[in-house]
């Protein structure tokens, strides 16, 4: 009897561990007036230096949390595809070259990520799968701005004109900072994606036993 394995549960545990680090940083500034001043970048005081450092650490860890959460989602999709497609060669193609599977489909011109293509394959390119894929693209865009780090220049002489030059032809937003307050919205998107994948997973798959919701991490 063949049994399929992956690191889904381990990756969920890693997400939880990173979240715990984020929360530990968050409680250091929770309820402090300096927190709002620094996040809003408004009326920051000289005595806020310590809190600025703590919030920088929090934001950096949330970046790591987003990246590893996407890694977990990709592992889940890969496992689901391998279990759903009753052909090992085609399963490998869907996992490693999903764009080729969707070759000629107009949706490929709308979405930019191979991970989104995998989700479309899992959902047989239904309207629902396309809607969820667009949600996934939002998170992937954030992930890409972190792992594909490209420099940018801010003209501080003309800050109000939003004069930013980026060394990239792609639309990125790598100066955006995310804080604990952003996790409810981000985790909500991750849960939409996670739940959809599990819904589309073969009924006999071991993934059906997975009990994990991002939003449940919030304390």
Keywords:
two-stranded antiparallel ribbon; 8 helices; mainly alpha; globular; 219 residues
Note down, in words, how this protein is organized.
- The model has no long low-confidence stretch (mean pLDDT 90).
- The chain contains eight helices and two strands.
- It has one domain (8-217).
- The N and C termini lie far apart (42 Å).
- It is mainly α and 219 residues long.
- Strands 1-2 form a two-stranded antiparallel ribbon.
Largest beta sheet: strand ordering: 1-2
Number of domains: 1
Structural class: mainly alpha
Order of helices and strands: HHHHHHHEEH
Shape: globular
- DSSP helix count? 8
Radius of gyration: 20 Å
What is the total tally of β strands? 2
- Gap between N and C termini, in Å? 42 Å
Question: In this structure, how is the largest beta sheet organized?
Answer: 2 strands, antiparallel
- Bin the helical content: 55-70%
Poorly predicted spans: none
Which range does the strand content fall in?
Answer: under 5%
Average predicted confidence as pLDDT: 90
Secondary structure elements and their pairing?
Blueprint: H1 8-29, H2 33-40, H3 49-84, H4 88-96, H5 98-101, H6 114-122, H7 127-147, E1 152-154, E2 164-166, H8 183-200
Antiparallel strand pairs: 1-2
Summarize the structure.
By secondary structure, the chain is mainly alpha-helical.
């Amino acid at each position: 009897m063949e049994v399929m394995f992956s690191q889904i549960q381990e990756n969920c545990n890693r997400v939880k561990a990173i979240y715990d680090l984020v929360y530990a940083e968050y409680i250091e500034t929770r309820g402090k007036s300096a927190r709002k001043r620094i996040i809003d970048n408004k009326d920051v005081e000289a005595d806020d230096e310590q809190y600025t450092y703590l919030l920088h650490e929090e934001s950096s860890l949330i970046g790591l949390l987003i990246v590893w959460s996407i890694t977990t989602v990709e592992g889940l999709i890969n496992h689901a595809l391998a279990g759903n497609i009753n052909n090992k060669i085609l399963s490998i193609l869907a996992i490693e070259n999903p764009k080729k599977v969707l070759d000629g489909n107009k949706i490929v011109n709308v979405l930019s990520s191979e991970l989104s293509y995998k989700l479309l394959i899992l959902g047989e390119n239904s309207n629902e799968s396309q809607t969820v894929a667009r949600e996934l693209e939002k998170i992937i865009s954030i992930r890409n701005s972190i792992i594909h780090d490209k420099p940018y220049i801010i003209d501080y002489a003309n800050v109000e004109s939003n004069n930013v030059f980026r060394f990239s032809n792609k639309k990125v937003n790598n100066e955006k900072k995310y804080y604990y307050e952003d996790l409810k919205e981000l985790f909500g998107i991750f849960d939409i994606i996670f739940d959809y994948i599990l819904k589309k997973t073969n009924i006999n798959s071991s993934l059906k036993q997975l009990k994990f919701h991002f939003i449940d991490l919030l304390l």
